[in-house]
Amino acid sequence: MRLSRPVTAAAMLAAAAIALAGCATPAADNADEATAASSGDAFPVTIEHAFGETVIESQPERVATVSWSNQEVPLALGVVPVGMAEVTWGDDDGDGVLPWVEDKLAELDAETPVLFDEADGIDFEAVADTQPDVILAAYSGLTQEDYDTLSKIAPVVAYPEVAWGTSYEDMIRLNSAALGLSEEGDALIEELHGEVDTALAAHPELADSAVLFSYIDPSDFSQIGFYTNLDTRPGFLASLGLPEPTVVAEESDGEAFYTTVSAEQADRFADVDVFVTYGDADGSIVAQLQADPLLSQIPAIAEGRIAILEESTPLAASANPSPLSISWGIDEYFALLAGALG
């Protein structure tokens, strides 16, 4: 039995990283409350989330994770899941595992966990077959029906408030609390903050740059698609103090992580300093954008201030920051953004 995710294929670039992200969303307060409820990591632990509360009676021994990047929390804390989602977006060698996860598994001298095929939604039977004690999904797009079905298998940690709107910090807080490792989770967050700050300091020109994270269909330039401040990619940059493009602020309603506006409204993108989009390695999308009579009116596009993330590469996936991807690719990511400024 499977259920499809309630998002479009284009927007799944956000979720799968498609979907990263100390974004200032309402989810942060709920996550703080959840970790506070598990103070001292004494079990039972109660986790508050969008679908209510989950009580975990004892420290889990068999951990399963679904959706994007949740497996990275237990792995970063030295716990190998019995099963996790198979990755297609960003997988460079076709084994269903991102390189930073491969590195961590090797470091832990662990075999690859069972991989759940989520191409058509969560594979509930496969999850059940791993006989988990807990299912981590703090960063996900679970529906109520998904949550109810998974809860028949094991206690489920869902997202705090909005689907696909959980920052990597809150993902760590919620998932680590469920494992009885809150203190270790907090230490991991502090460590990652240090790495991010160091990497950003190497590119001071980014500090005052408004970055728009977009997805434009090369076959249809009539619409400009971009991610709102709910999505973890722009949310991550906003958490670092980078200014938010006006159009993102105006179009963010706290419910959708991705939206589109007509290309006839190109003037609304005038204050964008860096236009980030996905494309081929040859950079052909730049010439296409600059040749379009409407999109070429956007200063960042006209002047070539475009950062291209090569589609379905590990770096493109790491732009949605997660507990293990930050150490792997944050320096290269910031260098890409800064390079677009010329």
Task: Provide a descriptive summary of the structure in words.
This protein has 342 residues and is an alpha/beta fold. It has 2 domains: 12-200, 3-Layer(aba) Sandwich (Rossmann fold), CATH 3.40.50.1980; 206-340, Nitrogenase molybdenum iron protein domain (Rossmann fold), CATH 3.40.50.1980. Helix content is 35%, strand content 14%. The protein has helices spanning 12-15, 27-37, 72-76, 99-107, 124-129, 144-151, 168-178, 182-201, 232-239, 246-251, 284-291, 299-302, 314-318, 325-340, and strands at 45-49, 52-56, 63-65, 83-85, 114-116, 134-136, 156-157, 211-213, 223-227, 258-262, 274-279, 306-310. It has a 3-stranded parallel sheet with strand order 3-6-7. A 3-stranded parallel sheet has the order 8-11-12, with helices on both faces. A two-stranded antiparallel ribbon has the order 1-2. α4 (99-107) links the parallel β4 and β5 (114-116). α7 (168-178) packs antiparallel against α8 and α8 (182-201) packs parallel to α14. The chain is globular and about 60 Å long. It starts with 11 loop residues before the first helix and ends with a helix. The relative contact order is 0.17.
